[in-house]
Structure formats: C-alpha cells, structure tokens
Specification:
globular; 933 residues; 5 helices
Length: 933
C-alpha cells in the first residue's frame, strides 16, 4: 500500500510537470471549462447538473478515457453501486438482489433504451455500442417504478447518424483475449430514414484460473461471444419520428461469463462420507483412508490447490456457458403535438441461457471413483461420485409504455404514462451423476416410496437425482404522473405518483432421488447384504408431499405423475402499491442546484422456487418497501471545479434476503431455501463526486462514498453456524430450554443439531444410532441469533475512486493522454450475519492507460493495464458453509458418526468454508481504433 501511494503521488507529480512543460504547446482555444453532460434520467434531455437526482453518468468518451470496460468497472466510479459478475446481480446503497430466482425481482431496475430488462449484462457493452450509461441512485418511484426501489440504470445506445460514419476497433490482451468490432451508420435510399449496424466478437482462450487436473480445461473468463445490432431511425414529416433496434447475441463460452466460477474457497477437501442433508456420497471420502481403489486425478493428491492459491483449482467437471436464440428488440415512436409529445415505447427479449458445471462448485475433490469395503466381505460398493449441475433460463418478455409529456415553455412541466409488462419464463435446474448408470433405475421399495404413482417409480435415463422445473407468468401494470412547477423564480417543486399492480402465477415441478446415503435405504457398507446391491430410491413423495394446510401462495395440493415421476403444484399471488416522490429544488444561479427529495419505493413479493430448492414449505416472500429521504447539492465552483454531494436516509422494510434452512436432525431431509424478510433496516450515507480541471488538459476525478446500511430488527439461524457456537455468535435461545425427540426427549422445542451434540441420537427402543464426532457442551440444537446492528449484505462502509488524466497536444495536432486510476473498497459481508467467515477484506486496485490520437482524429491507439499490482480484489462479501457430514464406517452395528470438519486447519477454531468472489487478475493489452469517416 505504501509503494502504491508513492506511485500515485509520483504519477500526480509527473502529470503536473508534463502539464507545466507542455503548457506552451497548447492551442489558444484550449479551455479548463468542464464540459456539460446531457442525460435523459427523467425522460427529457437535461444537463446532469440540473436534475435533482443523484446520478453517475458515463459517456462513451469517458469510459474510453478512464478504462471502464465492464459493469464491475462502473462500480469503482459509482458511489454505492455493487455488482456480482458471477450472478449478474446489482445493488445500490445496500438494496439489491443476491440470487437468480426469477420468481423474485431485482431491486435496481435496468432500462436499455427505455425497455426494462431483468439482466445487467447489456451495461457491459463496449463504448462502440453505448452512448451513455446513467446510474440513478435512490428509489425511482415514479418514472422507473418497476423494481427501482434501490435505483435505476439507464442505458442509451449510440443512434444512427445523418452523415456517413464507419469505425473498426481491435483489441488484444494477455490470456489470449481479443476483441474485434465495428460499426457503420448513415442515410438509406429512403428519405428520412437512417441506419446503424454494429457487430462485436470477443474471445479468450486462456483462463485466469489454472486447473491442475490433467486433461481438464482452465477456468476464468473463457469466452467466445458475438453481438450483431441493427438500428433504423425515422424522421417522417415534421411531427413524427421513430427508432427501432434489434440485437442478436450468442455465447459459446467455456468457464466464462455469468454463472461460471469466479470465486475462491481456501479450504481443505471435505472427507466425510455424505454431507449434511446430502442425497449422494462425497468424492472427498476417497481421501478418508476408509476407501480402496481410489482414482484421484489431482496431481497434488488430497491437497486442495485452492487452499493456498486463489488462482488454482482441481476440477473434473468442465463449465459450459451458452446463450442461444437471443433477440432484443426496442423501439420508440413519438408524435409531436403543439405543446406536448405522445411517445410509445415497445420492446421485448427472448433468450435461452444454459449453464453446466460442478456441484458443489468450490468444495469437491477431483476423485472419480472409489470402493467401499462391504461388511459381508463381498459385492463391495463402487462409488462414482462425480457430481454436476445443469441450469437453464428460457425467457421471453414484452414491454409497452405510453407517455404524454409537455414540451412547451413555462413554469409548469408535466408527464403521465401507462405501463404494461408481460414475462414468461422456465427455469429448469437439475443435478446428475454422469458416471453412475445405476441411478437410471430400477428403484428400491417402489410400492411404498412411489405409492402415489401407482407403486411405479418412473425410469431416470438422464441420471438426474435432483430435478426441478418451474414455469411462471409475470405481469406488471402501472399508471403514473409527475408535475414540475417553478412556483417562484429559482424554486421548483416536483411531485410524482405511480400505481403498480404485479401478478405472478405458475407451476413448480420436480423429482428427487437418493443413492447410497444411509438414511435413504442402507449404508453403502451393507451393499453385499442386499440382493443386487443397494438400489437408488425415489424420495419425491417422502419429501415433497403437501402439508395438511397449503403454504401461502400455493393454490393446489401436490400431485404426482407416474409417467415422468414428477411432483407438481401451482402457485399464485399479486401485490399492489402506490409509490411516488416529492422534490424541492433551489437553483439560485446557473452553477447551483440544491434539492431535497422524498421517495416511497416498492418491490413486489415473489416466490423462492427452483435452482437449489424444491417445493419449499415457505415459498412466498413479502413485498419490500422503502421511505427514502435525500438532500443534494450540485455545484460548479467557477468553470473548472464541479462537486456533486448527496446525503440520504432510508427506512427499509422486508428486505428479501435468501437464507438456507439447514436440516441438522440426521434424518433424510433436503435443505430448504427461503427469502427471509428482514423486518426493519436503515441505510444512510453520504456520496461525493467531483471533477477538478486545474489547468489546460489536466483533469482529476475524485469520488467517495460512506454507507451505513444495517439491520434494526430481525432474528434468524445462521446456516454456517446453526448451533451458534462460533466466536461472535449472538443466540437468543436459551439452550437449557431446548429439547429434541431425536435425543430421547418427549418433545422438540429446538431443532436438533446432531453434528455438534454431546448427546447421542436414539431410536424408539432407546438404542444409540448416531453420535457426534465433534461434540460441544453448548451444541446439539439450532439456535436463533439476533441480527440487530448487522450490516446488510454487500454494503462496504467506504469507497474511494480517483482518476488523473492529462492530454499533451503536439504541434501537428496529434495528442497523447495518460490516465491513472486508483480505487479502494472497504471490507464487506456477504450475509446478514456479520461473522468473520462471511467477510471479504478491504482491497485496492491501480489501473493505467496511455492513449495516442492521430492528427486527423481517425486513428487511436490505447495501451492499458488493469490491476497493475495483481492484487486480490473482492466483488462482494463472502458466502460460507459449515462442513458437516456423516461417516458410516465399520465395525458392524456401530452408530453413524456425525462430524463438523474444519475447513481451515491453518486457522484456530473449527472454521466454516468461506467463498470469496474475486475480481480479475492483472490484465494488459493494446487497442487500435480507426474511423473511416
């Protein structure tokens, strides 16, 4: 850090020296005046400095200058903004979405050319495609009402030009990463119609993460993507104009792009036989010493290379990330009446996303086979534990919006609109054992386990053991209006209101199998005692049958199909809310904009279904609401200093936080996941964005944000420490009052945790069936913990970003620009439990660019390096899981041993496995741009 500070100081000094030495060479027309930036954040073209909303805006030129090449780069220079490349999820000021369940919504809306989209990926398009990215911080409760409770990201494409334009760009980086793209624009043979056509091809063949297993591919940004985009612009007469865009996107990636591995889990391989609530055996049991004929493909044996190296893995299941049949349509049609415009925006998307990889992602030993000695001495069980997942999204949506907005001069401006959104999606997810044909069937005890399917367990040719397929229809309707009234000179009051009605209905289908886990049929060591060996079993009915009273949001009992083996149930719910904003603005002079703003925002509820959960007993989540108070000042201090400051306070209710409910009773039970509604939270902070141009062609940017987003009320069980035993635990449950039938008590008052229990598990006859290999005198039960005072996930308290850039003009008209950026981000948690194992450390990064422009402005050459010092950076807080599992080893009749294994033996205590989302390593390269005309 000291060296970096010296480097930055030296860079600033060098810039000053260059500026001083080059001052004589500057054109007399050069100026230190900060350029005005026009945005459309409030559906009109306005100077960014005039809009009474906290906005960070990035033009294509600014992105090229600073080196903002991805969505994550935007987070470095946007106060309060967080983004996960792996999950494609964004948050602002502590409000965000942290998983990919499509039956729940985002908290930060993304609008691409006025059309709402459920993904942030388009914000990462290169500057050749995007004219501007606008990030509106705080609830946009009127104009961007749908899911804008945290804010909105407004993407504005480059549009067709009246005159001919053509440009090509080529880029090459280390890791054999190259980009080739081009665009052409101009008039057509039809009067009043212009066009634009752009294309991009990006490919990287060397991964950021080395896979040490011979014959298996490396990972980390292995991509091969294409984009083709066409636009038409229509100027038809004096009063009517239109525009439309059609984009085609295709990915043929390996381990790269959203969904692929971008994390680091420094932990040993787990060596228990079956994981807590597992439905198949663990590969790592081959390292326990209890197995024979072990086939371990790791050159390091049973040592996880990721334990000490964040850029190494040992994986035997390659990633595959594809995006097929992706079409994005957007259009805008405007008729100009006298004094107002009528605008209609129509757009939609269709895509099929496909992701395949290992599961669990970062905690699987590369063991593909081992043998378990049978207690009978014959017919030993051969285990083929390689385990993989397949995740898909099949999405279509259509957006319609009609807006009337005033265009006349005068103290009162207004707009009003109607909005309709319709989405249909399928999200099939399954896990499978690619090397284990035994799970195709036949299945054990079908008369009992498949009784609701006429005693027949359907065959399973694809070898899937967890299979779920939700399909949903989602609609949103809204009506809104806003009035801006300058009631006296320099004072304007704005009021907006929006009514929203959101509906979600669909079907959930699924099937669940189990193989070689003791609780499902018999311990695998008894394989020789079962004629034909231990069969797989279908536990769908056992686990997913309806309760006597249907959960909220579920409208039908679960039924079972004897042909497919699937369980099916239907869900439906709707939400409605009135939201809006009230703003007071004071602009005493052209350089000052002071404002105070109140907003009431809302995000509809949803369902926690699919992905990693099937037929949850609590699928419904409540709607989120926020009351936000904000004051801001946008000020130009003369022509060369600009400062935008915002301070805010949020009263935030029912934050939808994904939470795993771990079953630790020792019985067969699938872990469930829910959206936990945090009852009350607050988010408050201050943000500063500033520009200083102290001399000709020298510009310094400085951004700082302070964020204090914390829980005021809430209680839950930590899935990584359900017994509340780790340092810092805050249990509210008195353990002395806990009882569990599993231990022979007459009633259960607290859920049993057999993995830490000092008491054995006994059956109805009083015989011991399970014992803990990790007993703790305070363990044995799950205990609820206090959440008050904990930070909301992915909410770093402090963020700093600095950029200094200087342009030297040569006598022939060519120029060279040097740009150095420094960003620092505070530590943050990835969970509502603020524990050490959920904490990502603070980190910083230095980037640098050198840009040469030819005198005719046609040729540009950029040399760049990102993450100059190759530091570890963290996109967000860490996730964590307890290493709990069971061992069924001989001697015959011995009880099952339940253990909690230490994921980090190098650190004192019994540590959960922490998984950190990493930023890219050092990358560097060169880009050449050429404009034909």
């Amino acid at each position: 850090m000291k060296f970096k500070g010296s480097l930055l100081a030296s860079s600033a000094l060098l810039a000053a020296v260059m500026a001083a030495s080059g001052a004589q060479a500057q054109s007399s027309s050069a100026s230190t005046t900060i350029e005005e930036l026009v945005v459309t954040a409030e559906r009109r073209e306005q100077s960014l400095q005039d809009v009474p909303v906290a906005i960070s805006a990035f033009t294509a030129e600014k992105r090229d200058l600073i080196g903002i090449q991805s969505v994550f780069d935007l987070t470095n220079f946007t106060p309060g903004l967080q983004y996960s490349t792996q999950t494609d999820r964004v948050s602002l000021r502590g409000i965000g979405r942290t998983n990919n369940v499509h039956a729940a919504d985002a908290s930060v809306s993304v609008y691409s050319d006025g059309i709402y989209t459920t993904s942030t990926v388009e914000a990462g398009k290169t500057p050749l495609f995007l004219e501007r990215v606008e990030i509106l911080r705080g609830p946009q409760a009127t104009l961007y009402g749908r899911n804008a409770i945290g804010g909105a990201i407004n993407l504005v494409s480059k549009r067709p030009t009246d005159d001919w334009y053509a440009e090509v760009r080529g880029q090459y980086q280390n890791y054999n990463h190259h980009i080739l793209e081009g665009a052409v624009s101009g008039p057509t043979f039809i009067p009043g119609v212009t066009f634009r056509l752009a294309a991009n091809w990006e490919k990287q063949t060397k991964g950021w993460i080395e896979n040490v297993v011979p014959g298996f591919p490396d990972e980390g940004n292995i991509i091969n993507t294409n984009i083709i985009e066409g636009q038409l612009k229509f100027d038809i007469g004096e009063n009517f104009d239109g525009w439309m865009k059609l984009t085609w996107i295709e990915w043929r990636n390996g381990a790269g792009g959203p969904g692929s591995r971008a994390t680091w889990t420094p932990a040993v391989f787990p060596t228990f036989e079956a994981a807590n609530a597992g439905i198949t055996l663990q590969p790592g049991y081959g390292c326990s010493g209890n197995a024979t004929n072990v086939v371990n493909l790791n050159p390091g044996g049973c040592v996880n290379p990721a334990l000490t190296n964040p850029r190494k893995i040992a994986s035997t299941v390659p990633y595959d990330v594809d995006l097929n049949g992706t079409y994005i349509f957007a259009s805008e049609w405007t008729y100009h009446f006298q004094g107002f415009d009528l605008r209609y925006q129509l757009g939609g998307v269709h895509y099929h996303y496909y992701l395949q990889g290992p599961t669990p992602v970062d905690q699987t030993a590369p063991i593909v086979r081992y043998t378990l000695p049978s207690l009978t001495g014959a017919n030993n069980a051969v285990v083929r534990p390689r385990y993989a997942f397949n995740y898909q999204e099949e999405e279509s949506w259509l957006s319609n919006e009609i807006t009337l907005l005033s265009t006349h001069d005068g103290p009162v401006q207004w707009l009003a609109g109607l909005y309709y959104w319709k989405e249909s999606y399928g999200q099939p997810v399954y896990t499978y054992l690619p090397d284990e044909p035994r799970v195709r069937g036949p299945f054990g005890v079908p008369a009992a386990l498949c009784a609701k399917r006429n005693g027949v367990c359907a065959p399973n040719p694809a070898q899937r053991i967890f299979d779920t397929y939700p399909e949903f229809d989602i609609s949103s309707r809204a009506a809104y209006a806003q009035i801006d009234w300058e009631f006296v000179d320099n004072w304007t009051i704005s009021g907006g209101i929006r009514y929203s009605l959101d509906k979600k209905e669909g079907v959930e289908r699924g099937r669940l199998l189990c193989y070689l886990v003791a609780g499902c049929f018999a311990a695998p060591e008894l394989n020789g005692a079962v004629a034909g060996g231990i069969p797989p079993v279908d536990i769908t009915e056992n686990q997913w049958s309806s309760a006597a009273v249907l959960p909220k949001g579920v409208i039908t009992p679960t039924v079972f199909d004897p042909v497919t083996g699937f369980a099916t149930r239907y869900l439906k719910e709707e939400w409605q809310e009135i939201t809006g904003n009230l703003t007071l603005k004071w602009d005493p002079d052209p350089d000052t904009n002071a404002f105070a703003r109140f907003s009431h925002g809302y995000k509809p509820g949803g369902f926690r279904i699919g992905i990693d959960v099937g037929f949850s007993p609590n699928p419904l989540t409540r709607e989120e609401k926020v009351d936000a108070f904000e004051v801001g000042l946008k000020k130009n201090f003369g022509p060369n200093i600009q400062a935008n400051i915002a301070a805010f306070y949020y009263d935030y209710k029912n934050a939808q936080i994904p939470l795993t409910i771990v079953n630790t009773s020792g019985a067969v039970a699938v872990t469930q996941s829910i959206f936990y509604n945090v009852p009350e939270a607050t988010s408050k902070g201050i943000e500063i964005e500033s520009i200083w141009q102290p001399m000709e062609n020298l510009q310094i940017l400085f951004n700082y944000s302070y964020l204090d987003a914390e829980i005021d009320k809430g209680q839950a069980i930590d899935p990584a420490d359900p017994a509340a035993l780790a340092a810092g635990a805050r249990p509210i449950t008195d353990r002395s009052l806990c009882r569990a039938i599993a231990y022979g008590d007459t009633a259960t008052t607290c859920a049993a945790d057999v993995y830490t229990s000092p008491r054995p598990v006994v059956n109805a006859a009083g015989a011991t069936t399970q014992v803990s290999g990790s007993p703790d005198p305070n363990g044995g039960f799950q205990r609820v913990q206090e959440l008050k005072g904990y930070a909301l996930p992915n909410s770093p308290k402090h963020k700093i970003a600095i950029n200094a850039n200087y342009t030297h003009m040569f006598g022939d008209g060519s120029s060279v620009t040097g740009s150095v950026s420094y960003s620092w981000r505070d530590s943050q948690y990835g969970s509502i439990f603020n524990r050490a194992y959920y904490k990502s450390p603070s980190w910083d990064q230095v980037d640098a660019r050198l840009t040469w422009k030819a005198k005719d402005q046609k040729t540009t050459v950029i040399a760049f390096v990102k993450n100059l010092f190759d530091d570890l950076g963290y996109e967000g807080g860490a996730t964590a899981s307890r290493r709990a599992g069971s061992i069924y080893t001989p001697p015959a009749g011995a009880p099952i041993v339940n253990v909690v294994q230490d994921a980090r033996p190098d650190i004192a205590g019994n540590n959960p496995a922490s998984t950190y989302p990493l930023t890219p390593p050092r990358t560097y390269g060169i880009e050449i741009q050429y404009k034909f005309f």
